[in-house]
Write a structure and sequence with these properties.
This protein has 81 residues and is an alpha/beta fold. It has three helices and four strands; from the N terminus they run E-H-E-E-H-E-H.
Amino acid sequence: MLRVRGYVLRDKSFVLTGELESMTRDEAKEKIRALGGDVSSSVSRATSFVVVGKNPGSKYDKARELGVKVLDEKEFIKMVK
């Protein structure tokens, strides 16, 4: 199956929480959007992934409560490469 690079994250929504070490939050948002994904500021059942950096806030707790898939920074980087 041929996958078009620009749409790898199509129909996926992300929330970022905590401090990322390898990139700024704006850079992470750009990567997600460049691959067809969406970025939200709040976690809901519609959220596909929550990316967790150092010292995550209540968004991490909300993701766990709702059963949303949580990615650490390393997993996120693999996904957007």
